[in-house]
Amino acid sequence: MHAKLALADGTVFTGRGFGATGETLGEVVFNTSMAGYQEVLTDPSYTGQIVTMTYPLIGNYGTTADDEESNAVRVAGFIVRELTRVPSNFRSDRDLDSYLKASNVVGIEGIDTRALVRRLRVRGSMNGILSTADLDDASLVAKARAFPGMEGRDLVSEVVPKQSFKWDKGFGTLTDHVLPHRPATKKVVAIDYGMKWNILRCLTQVGCDVTVVPGTASADEVLAHNPDGIFLSNGPGDPAAVGYAIDTVKQLIPKKPLFGICLGHQLLGLALGAKTFKLKFGHRGANQPVRNELTKQIEITTQNHGFAVDPTTLPKDVQPTHINLNDNTLEGLRHTTLPVFSVQYHPEAAAGPHDSSYLFEEFRKLMG
Ligand SMILES: NC(=O)CC[C@H](N)C(=O)O
């Protein structure tokens, strides 16, 4: 079955459809991970985005319920150079094609993903449309141009859980060595803006008794749980568009130890008075080098973000702690007098290296 990908700049790629049929719009972004496609597909931070993998062969180890990072496939569409139709892996319970069909997500294979990624790198992330229905180039390009894009859109409210819940699962046998397994002695409220589940596994593993609350919760609702610390999760869209969350974080900052990841880091930055901006093509992959400015050690990190906190706008009592070595953008901050810190990258990996898992232990220590 023919499928087409059209970009807002007028470029059209023709390939073969897989997964669901139909038409889907989104911001087209690329991910440089060699593995971890199922974690990418189910990461709620990709809401509203069509993701292309730079690695040329995708699907070879299938999919498994154990590798879900949320309860649904979240990407708007999926692009690969070559799809493996017959996976080989003892953990796999479904091939990628059937997995995307069951999730009603459109995929395209057989296009020149190198040409696509070079275009996105030169011109920046662009809106696009992926279709197996309408195959008329001019009509597709017009639809891509009419799509509103990411800036100014609150996508968090589309992915927050409907109600609070308890989480109590740590690591499985495959990852148990990554962090020490400690008894649950610290009460943590995790504010869910579209959280990856491996963050919850990491918090639980290091001894947090975790209650998850929706990202729309008020400061009073969070504090009513009387937590020892508060975690701010990752999530989709433009951080500056989520005013209600920034207000809540502002109220929480003076009250409790806080740890933020990705969108949580951006919301913390905004609540502290800094500004965010959109990166040209973002950081998405499992090989992003970051320098810890406190220890001068280099961490290879997993990342997925299109926005960043502008370090020149940080107030005096906020210190940059981590820097991305590819483009020198800010990857972490901490308050100099309050127990508050955050990172732009993903210390929970899923998938990716475990260099930064120490941050979960630091959060536990910060809670006393
Ligand atoms: N993974 C995330 O939390 C992403 C944060 C934000 N949506 C961005 O793209 O920058």
Automatic annotation (TrEMBL):
Record-listed E.C. numbers: 6.3.5.5
Annotated L-glutamine binding sites: 45, 235, 237, 263, 266, 304, 306-307
What SUPFAM superfamilies does the database record attribute to this sequence? Carbamoyl phosphate synthetase, small subunit N-terminal domain, Class I glutamine amidotransferase-like
Which Gene Ontology molecular function entries are recorded, alphabetically? carbamoyl-phosphate synthase (glutamine-hydrolyzing) activity
Q: Which InterPro entries match?
A: Anth_synth/Amidotransfase, CarbamoylP_synth_ssu, CarbamoylP_synth_ssu_N, CarbP_synth_ssu_N_sf, Class_I_gatase-like, CPSase_GATase1, GATASE
Look up the record and name the pathway of this protein: Amino-acid biosynthesis; L-arginine biosynthesis; carbamoyl phosphate from bicarbonate: step 1/1; Pyrimidine metabolism; UMP biosynthesis via de novo pathway; (S)-dihydroorotate from bicarbonate: step 1/3
Q: Where is the active site?
A: 262 (nucleophile), 346, 348
* Catalysed reaction, written as an equation: hydrogencarbonate + L-glutamine + 2 ATP + H2O = carbamoyl phosphate + L-glutamate + 2 ADP + phosphate + 2 H(+); L-glutamine + H2O = L-glutamate + NH4(+)
Q: Region CPSase: list its residue ranges.
A: 1-171
UniProt entry tagged with the keyword Amino-acid biosynthesis:
yes
Q: Flavoprotein: present as a keyword of the record?
A: no
| Carbamoyl-phosphate synthase small subunit N-terminal domain mapped to chain residues | 1-131
Q: Which residues form the signal peptide?
A: none
- Kindly state which keywords UniProt assigns to this record, in alphabetical order: Amino-acid biosynthesis, Arginine biosynthesis, ATP-binding, Glutamine amidotransferase, Ligase, Nucleotide-binding, Pyrimidine biosynthesis
Q: Assembly and interactions? A: Composed of two chains; the small (or glutamine) chain promotes the hydrolysis of glutamine to ammonia, which is used by the large (or ammonia) chain to synthesize carbamoyl phosphate. Tetramer of heterodimers (alpha,beta)4.
- Family indicated by similarity: Belongs to the CarA family.
What biological function has been recorded for the protein in this entry? Small subunit of the glutamine-dependent carbamoyl phosphate synthetase (CPSase). CPSase catalyzes the formation of carbamoyl phosphate from the ammonia moiety of glutamine, carbonate, and phosphate donated by ATP, constituting the first step of 2 biosynthetic pathways, one leading to arginine and/or urea and the other to pyrimidine nucleotides. The small subunit (glutamine amidotransferase) binds and cleaves glutamine to supply the large subunit with the substrate ammonia.
NCBIfam families (UniProt xref): CPSaseIIsmall, PRK12838.1
This one is known as Carbamoyl phosphate synthase small chain
